Amino acid sequence: MSTSERVEQSLAWELHVELASRITSVTLGPEEGLLSEALDSLYCVFETARHALAAHPPQRALVEDSLHQVVFRLLNQGLRPFLSRWHPRLDAYHARRPQHVSRLDHELAWAQAGQLRAELAELQVLLRDVTERLAELAGAGSLLPAVR
Question: Which pTM was predicted?
């Protein structure tokens, strides 16, 4: 195996671990967790993946299912549109939270919370697929928990 293939496998594994250990792959129940923390976690994935790609330029021509193409599609077709839609809406809603109301209670009362959770569940299907593909590209088994 060449050095560039080892670097690519290492990068694929690093990103697999990042995705497998976050909300990207773990179902968030109807009244579990904070949506703001889920969005922050997704943003961290976005930042980590973008920096990892920038730090590890491809060593060969990019093909359709190459590591860099898979991750770039994840960023631009999955995470970016979702975060661009939901982060500002939730931030604006949180800005109106009364001091005596907890963040959780405030989020649970949000009229759009159900829609955000439903769209997050749809996004997680894509994220799980990408996470599995990264494990394949790393030449390793997946760390993803079974879907519940």
Answer: 0.89
